[in-house]
Amino acid sequence: MGTTIVVAICIGIASLMYATAGQAGGTAFLAVLTFASLPAAEMRPTALLLNILAAGYSTWRMHRAGAVDWRLFASLSVPAIPAAFLGGLIVLNGRFYYSLTGALLILAAILLAAKGSIKPVGESRVGMWPAGVIGAGAGFLSGISGVGGGVFLAPLLITLGLASARGTAGVSPPFILANSLVGFAGTFLAGQRIAFDVGWYAAAAILGSVAGSAIGLRWMSERSTRLVLAVILFVGGIRLISR
Question: In sequence order, which residues have a C-beta less than 8 Å from that of residue 98 and are 6 or more positions away?
Answer without folding.
Answer: 40, 240, 241, 243
